[in-house]
Amino acid sequence: EAQVTQNPRYLITVTGKKLTVTCSQNMNHEYMSWYRQDPGLGLRQIYYSMNVEVTDKGDVPEGYKVSRKEKRNFPLILESPSPNQTSLYFCASSSGPLAGIYNEQFFGPGTRLTVL
Amino acid sequence: GQQVMQIPQYQHVQEGEDFTTYCNSSTTLSNIQWYKQRPGGHPVFLIQLVKSGEVKKQKRLTFQFGEAKKNSSLHITATQTTDVGTYFCAGPINYQLIWGAGTKLIIKP
Asked: Does A1 touch chain B if contact means CB atoms closer than 8 Å?
């Protein structure tokens, strides 16, 4: 089954304790991205990756790191989490883009993070 | 900065009434996508519009892309309880997909 998986689904942690949220897709997609979703703000892109070893900042990259060593995996790292990073996080993947056309984004189920 | 504005933020309707959400971009878009997010779920792709003036229908849903490719709308005819959720538009600007803030469709009890 074609899917994007994220782990963990829920996480409660304390300020400053490094954490990693994993994301994996089995569709051989080139494009992967991380979003955070906060009430009234929609989806805001944190980082995106056009392909292996190619990553770039989105709208809200401060406090986050990513890596893309393999095509299928795109982990999100919070080196020193703070309470303002409490949010719902989504990983997404898609084929392309090609000639500026972005294809259907497939989303993971989400990770609800609480930083105390 | 460049952005995609979406209105309204919420729309309360009686079951059977129509629903419309609008997206406006500050820049011309090569394409625009629409997604639906059910309560507690993740966004799910509905459709993509690419051509200027394009209109596409999916049963009771009608999607339009403006002539200038800067605005788009989603119209639902005769809403049902299964339509409840938040509808998002998203368009590529400078290699990023920029998302509208979403319109939440609420069915009045």
From this structure: no
pLDDT by position in tens, chain A (length 116): 889 999 999 999 999 999 999 999 999 999 999 999 998 788 999 999 999 999 999 989 999 999 999 999 999 999 999 999 999 999 999 987 776 677 899 999 999 999 99
Cα separation, B88 vs B18, in Å, equals: 17
Q: How many angstroms separate the first and last alpha carbons of chain B?
A: 39
**CA distance to partner chain A, nearest, from residue B53 (Å):** 17
Structural tokens at position A56: 């770039």
Instruction: Return d(Cα A57, Cα A44) in angstroms, integer.
Output: 11
Q: Which two tokens stand for residue B25?
A: 């971009």
* Interface residue of A4, A31, A43 to substitute, partner B, most B CBs within 10 Å: A43
